[in-house]
Predict the structure.
Amino acid sequence: MKDAPAPRCLQVVALRSLLQCVAVLWLSAPGWAGPSSAAHDSASPTDFVPPLLSYSSVFKNYHGYREEAVASWLEANDTVGRIGGWRAYLEEAFQPDQPEFSLPQQPLPASSKDSNHHSGHEGKP
């Protein structure tokens, strides 16, 4: 016995008819301006004034590479040693103005085997 695709076909026809009715009602509404010859006759090509455009190059404030004066490595090492070495940089990184890392107040829920997306990945194929 052959299945009839009529219900699907009828749905498509009904949807197409509905869209056509909506389009006809929308286009026949009183507020629809539509293309009219009066609008084209009153405008002349000389009435159009293009907007003023300005151009600003993205390279206006570009500064090319400039070689910087480099201090000797002996002076740089002496400066680091004088301020406290790497520990000074570590303390500087944890100053109060930096947001502190905090652990969540509640423990995370334990995931069960059913809710774990990767539950079958730990075994051999």
Observations:
- Helices lie at 6-27, 37-42, 73-83, 86-93.
- The chain has four helices and no strands.
- Residues 9 and 24 are 23 Å apart (CA to CA).
